[in-house]
């Protein structure tokens, strides 16, 4: 069976990608499963560049097909901040209660469409022959007026999805995966893997 490494140490992401790729004849290994440790500097200026930096680095170390992702929140009224800096916004160690309260505060006085935002996820694949591909998934929403919900992580409590009438922190994980930026990017990458690997 072909092996693919997913360059993440996040168990939640591993579970999601294994679920999405389960009907393909590939084994998906985490960095830990593959016995790899790497401290990769993500110094790209786009989600695509950062995902490719991670995928290419591990591909070059192992010679395997490697997937990597990069994701974040873009708030239109804040010039698409925090964007690629979503994890580092206000400092890596600052709690999301504080980050979320700060974003709500910065949008005070704005209503409806003025609060538009999206989650973006890019999955990159780097192949042993030196080629690579990226796929992007997004979900559109609005920044809520106060945090709501306890599911998910990060900015989920302030990401309100008008079609569902709730935040992504108020959705069950399978409901969120069906509509999320990461789910969409992973399903698009599945078709690339089907053609290139399996
Ligand atoms: P990374 O791609 O794991 O580096 O994630 C980047 C950051 O974007 C996370 O630490 C969160 O702050 C934010 N983020 C990405 N996807 C989501 C999501 O689905 N919900 C909430 N926050 C997210």
Description:
This protein is an alpha+beta fold. The protein has one domain (3-197): Alpha-Beta Complex (Maf protein). The protein has helices at residues 11-20, 47-62, 96-106, 173-179, 181-196, and strands at 2-6, 26-30, 65-75, 81-82, 116-126, 132-143, 159-161, 166-167. Strands 1, 2, 3, 4, 5, 6, 7 and 8 form an eight-stranded mixed beta sheet that branches.
Summarize the structure.
With 198 residues, the protein is of the alpha+beta class. The chain has five helices and eight strands, in the order E-H-E-H-E-E-H-E-E-E-E-H-H.
Q: How is the biggest beta sheet arranged?
A: 8 strands, mixed
CATH class assignment: Alpha Beta
The parts where pLDDT drops under 50 for at least 5 residues are none
**Number of separate domains:** 1
The H/E string reads: EHEHEEHEEEEHH
User: Rough shape?
Assistant: globular
Assign the structural class, choosing from mainly alpha, mainly beta, alpha/beta, alpha+beta, or little secondary structure.
Answer: alpha+beta
List the total number of helices: 5
Considering DSSP H and I runs of 4 or more, what fraction of the residues is helical? 25-40%
Mean pLDDT: 95
| Portion in beta strands | 25-35%
Radius of gyration: 17 Å
Number of strands: 8
- CATH architectural type: Alpha-Beta Complex
In the CATH scheme, what's the topology name? Answer: Maf protein
In this entry the ligands are: inosinic acid
What is the CA-CA span between the terminal residues?
A: 9 Å
């Amino acid at each position: 069976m072909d092996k693919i490494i997913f360059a993440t140490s996040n168990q939640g992401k591993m579970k999601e990608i294994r679920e999405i790729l389960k009907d393909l004849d590939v084994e998906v290994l985490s960095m830990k499963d593959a016995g790899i440790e790497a401290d990769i500097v993500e110094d790209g200026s786009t989600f695509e560049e950062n995902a490719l930096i991670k995928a290419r680095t591990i591909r070059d170390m192992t010679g395997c097909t490697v997937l990597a992702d990069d994701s974040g929140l873009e708030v239109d009224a804040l010039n698409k901040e925090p964007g690629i800096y979503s994890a580092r916004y206000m400092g890596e160690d600052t709690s999301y209660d504080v980050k979320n309260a700060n974003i709500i505060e910065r949008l005070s006085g704005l209503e409806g469409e003025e609060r538009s935002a999206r989650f973006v996820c890019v999955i990159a694949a780097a192949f042993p022959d030196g080629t690579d591909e990226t796929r992007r998934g997004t979900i559109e929403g609005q920044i809520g007026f106060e945090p709501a919900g306890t599911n998910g992580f990060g900015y989920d409590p302030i990401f309100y999805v008008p079609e569902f009438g709730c935040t992504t922190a108020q959705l069950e994980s399978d409901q969120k995966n069906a509509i999320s930026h990461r789910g969409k990017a992973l399903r698009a990458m599945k078709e690339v893997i089907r053609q290139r690997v399996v």
